[in-house]
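Changelog entry: the Glycosyltransferase family 2 protein record was regenerated in this release. Current contents:
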Amino acid sequence: MKPLRELKQGGLLSVVLPSYNEEASIPRAAERITELLTAADIPFELLFVDDGSKDGSWAAIQTQAARFPQVRGVRFSRNFGKEAAIFAGLAQARGDCAAVMDCDLQHPPEKLEEMYRLWQQGYEVIEGIKVSRGKESPLHAFAAHRFYDILSRVTGVDMSRASDFKLLDRKAVDTLVALREKNAFFRALSSWIGFSTATVEFEVQPRVAGESKWSVMSLVRYAVTNIAAFSTAPLQIVTLLGSVVFLASVVLGLHSLWQKFTGHALEGFTTVILLQLLIGSILMICLGIIGYYIAKIYEEIKDRPRYILAEHCGGNDESASGKTV
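Regenerated structure tokens:
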């Protein structure tokens, strides 16, 4: 790719690593990324965000902060979710650009140098694009493909190979952090904000330690929450179902009138019961969809913070305990 403008010289890179029960992965991530970026002569900081872990993740972050001067950490008062951890890391990042990647190193840290060089060329959003999803169960792979296919259709943004592995210019970071919505979907919003964009392909690597924290149910909740947060398409389903039922009612009504006037009317007890069950089920589904959106509106109106910071370590700033955002 040709540079968009004169190459940027230097520039601090902040690497944000959301962490939840990653006690074994944190030391390996700190060592590996520090080794690679030091060898590439890239000024950097590593920012671990402990998303209310129940294991020794925070102690591991504190240990790495004492070991490496480039390592900082912040800890949530409780678990607020990966999206909140990403936005907390971006808000705390001091760099001229910031990369987001998984703490388990399934996002290959070797790609950080390539992303950084593209940023130096003038690109403001560098997207990590999956070439393969690595080893995962057939059910997980099928569900993920369907989720991103649906999300791509309802948002108009190609999410088929999207990931949280991205590098953002300070301008893009500040834009994302300024967004006030509570149910923010980083993977889609980083594309939605625009800016000059480049892509870097990568293969999902095996976890360096531990097991995935995502169960099937948590993935389903994640999918539903993010579709609702980024699209009103499910509400259009209500209109579609209402139209289908209305057309079916017109057809059945005309058929019943024809039978009545021709003297062929029959007792339709079973048909009536089935229609009531069908229409009742559709009404309940529609009310459920509308109710879900009302619940999200309620959450936004309350204007509670996305997360609460309990502690920090590393760096020279004053304590961030109790800070809300």
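Residues 128 and 200 are 5 Å apart (CA to CA).
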